[in-house]
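Regression test case RT-17, inverse folding.

Input:
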């Protein structure tokens, strides 16, 4: 992460559920401040969206170094091109759209596939020791199953189930018609059901 992008310690901390608990109007006020070069407003917006964008990119790219690179690029665009947001979508949709496009461009530079193993070191700590083993196995199976999906299918699953976006919002992020999002979601769900079928049999 480029040093100047990191929030300064004097910046006001964001709520714990960053990016989910603030009204759109407040986020737009922050963006207005960024347009006027107010670093404190950028720091706050950074704290709001950093966890969400990181999670999205980790699930999408599964490569720690590439995640950091795309995260930097995304936040740089927010800082440098805040005036390009036209208000036709939610601010979150705009920011996730930037991240998605940057991720696709980054992947296009690689001749070989990205690694399949889960490299998410940014998840919250698990529950107590008595539950960690079972939940850890379940999480690992889910991540493995998601890794079997195409990048397009992983994107719609992540945005729908982990970012609580509607089909219309997802369509705006990934740049395709809403019906295409629905089709991708259908095939992603069917593929996941097949990959995780044995879990249902053990219940």
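Golden output:
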């Amino acid at each position: 992460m480029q040093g100047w992008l990191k929030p300064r310690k004097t910046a006001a901390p964001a709520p714990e559920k960053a990016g989910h608990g603030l009204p759109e109007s407040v986020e737009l006020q922050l963006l207005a401040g960024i347009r006027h070069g107010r670093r404190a407003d950028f720091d706050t917006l950074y704290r709001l969206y950093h966890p969400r964008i990181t999670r999205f990119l980790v699930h999408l790219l599964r490569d720690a170094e590439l995640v950091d690179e795309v995260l930097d690029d995304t936040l740089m665009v927010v800082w440098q091109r805040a005036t390009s947001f036209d208000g036709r979508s939610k601010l979150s949709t705009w920011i996730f759209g930037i991240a998605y496009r940057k991720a696709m461009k980054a992947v296009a530079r690689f001749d070989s596939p990205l690694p399949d193993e889960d490299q998410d070191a940014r998840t919250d700590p698990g529950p107590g020791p008595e539950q960690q083993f079972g939940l850890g196995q379940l999480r690992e199976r889910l991540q493995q199953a998601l890794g079997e999906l195409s990048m397009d299918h992983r994107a719609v699953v992540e945005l729908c189930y982990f970012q609580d976006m509607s089909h219309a919002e997802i369509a705006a992020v990934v740049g395709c018609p809403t019906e295409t999002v629905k089709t991708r979601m259908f095939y992603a769900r069917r593929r996941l059901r097949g990959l995780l079928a044995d879990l249902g049999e053990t219940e």
